[in-house]
Specification:
By secondary structure, this protein is of the alpha/beta class. 35% of the residues lie in helices and 20% in strands. The chain has two domains: 3-150 and 292-335, Rossmann fold (3-Layer(aba) Sandwich), CATH 3.40.50.450; 155-288, 3-Layer(aba) Sandwich (Rossmann fold). The chain has a seven-stranded mixed beta sheet with strand order 3-2-1-6-7-14-15, with helices on both faces. It has a four-stranded parallel beta sheet with strand order 9-10-8-13, sandwiched between helices. Strands 4-5 form a two-stranded antiparallel ribbon. β14 (318-323) and β15 (326-331) form a beta hairpin. The radius of gyration is 22 Å and the shape is elongated. The relative contact order is 0.17.
Length: 361
């Protein structure tokens, strides 16, 4: 009998519970035990936050958003912020304690569900000797080693639905609506939702944009008796010759920049250059919530079942990957090597151009 511990780290995504559901069911069919670590690695730091998961515990969770285990993007065990006796925050490495607890509990494998940050942590634990299997999770779809990550399809559906609703209010007031979507420095959500949601312009990080071109597209709409416009901007999009707009650095112990503000900046530029009534909207964490789409549900369950098969085969240090049409696996070091960018020579980009969407170039 094997004992597995499963964790969900980083930002939440629709489909996390479906992975947990599949892991528990596939494990119990083999007579294995599954434990859930609360809030990422917290359960392996504080044993009270470690819970055994039976089939009854995961009944019907495959259709719900979020994660029953909770998640955190502040829980890097190799650089964890802790408060000392003086009330000061310090960054400490607690990875050895986690590894000791993992071994003391007799776990045979850790299934780590997360994006590039969480999988990089899993890779480090693998190097320290922990048997790890990674499962790719990110609404940004920016992991190079897998064709698709679960959560992305639901995020795109949410963004597209928002764009559909904005058309009617923009048209009623002859307004320009600028919608900022997530994606970090990859433009997948912006591109997919922008095309599907009938945007007039889509601004993605992979292609620095010229505001003059964007405004020309908006003014050109009037020649076709269209006095409103929808602009979709990925949070990491940047004007040609400009800098990425951000809210500053992340919290103690995290080095990445907190993106946000490009939508408001683009709206202000359009308002000044065209004189059009322009508003901005940030979809933000709305894209992370809600029930997963059928595609994400199925993909998440496939990932979970495939992870258990990798445990059975002893293929530790790997991440489950979708290499269409089948499930495969790649070493964790390859999985986090680089982020997947939008190919500017892809059919989707060609489609956007062919149907008259401005990409700002």
């Amino acid at each position: 009998m094997k004992k597995i511990v499963i964790s969900t780290g980083g930002g939440d995504a629709p489909g996390l519970n479906a992975v947990i559901y599949a892991v528990v069911h596939a494990s119990y069919r083999r007579g294995w035990e599954v434990y859930g670590s609360r809030s990422g690695y917290k359960g392996l730091l504080d044993m009270d936050e470690l819970h055994r998961l039976d089939v009854s515990d995961v009944e019907d969770i495959y259709s719900t958003g979020g994660t029953i285990l909770g998640s955190t993007n502040k829980g890097d065990p190799f650089a964890m912020p802790v408060e000392n006796l003086a009330g000061e925050m310090k960054v400490v490495d607690v990875s050895d304690k986690i590894l000791d607890n993992f071994r003391r509990m007799g776990f045979d494998c850790h299934i780590a569900i997360g994006g590039d940050g969480s999988l990089e942590i899993a890779r480090k634990f693998s190097e320290k000797g922990m048997p790890v299997i990674g499962v790719p999770k990110t609404i940004d779809n920016d992991l190079e080693a897998t064709d698709r990550t679960f959560g992305f399809d639901t995020a795109v559906a949410t963004a597209t639905e928002a764009l559909d609703k904005l058309h009617s209010t923009a048209k009623s007031h002859d307004r320009v609506m600028v919608v900022e979507v997530m994606g970090r420095d990859s433009g997948w959500i912006a591109l997919y939702s922008g095309i599907s949601g009938g945007a007039d312009a889509i601004l993605i990080p992979e292609l620095p944009f010229d505001m003059k071109k964007v405004c020309e597209k908006i003014m050109d709409n009037a020649l076709h008796e269209k006095d409103y416009a929808i602009v979709v901007a990925a949070e990491g999009a940047v004007a040609a010759g400009g800098k990425v707009i951000s809210k500053g650095m992340a919290e103690l112990g995290r080095s990445e920049v907190l993106l946000g503000g490009i939508g408001e900046w683009v709206a202000a530029e359009i308002r000044e250059r065209t004189g059009k009534d322009t508003r901005s909207l940030v979809l933000g964490h709305l894209q992370r919530g809600g029930s997963p789409t059928t595609f994400d549900r199925l993909l998440a369950m496939r990932f979970g079942a495939a992870a258990v098969r990798l445990v059975e085969e002893g293929r530790f240090g790997h991440m489950v990957a979708l290499v269409s049409p089948n499930m495969s696996s790649v070493p964790l070091e390859d999985a986090v090597k680089s982020r997947k960018k939008v190919d500017l020579n892809s059919d989707k980009v060609f489609t956007a151009r062919e149907i008259g969407i401005c990409l700002g170039d």
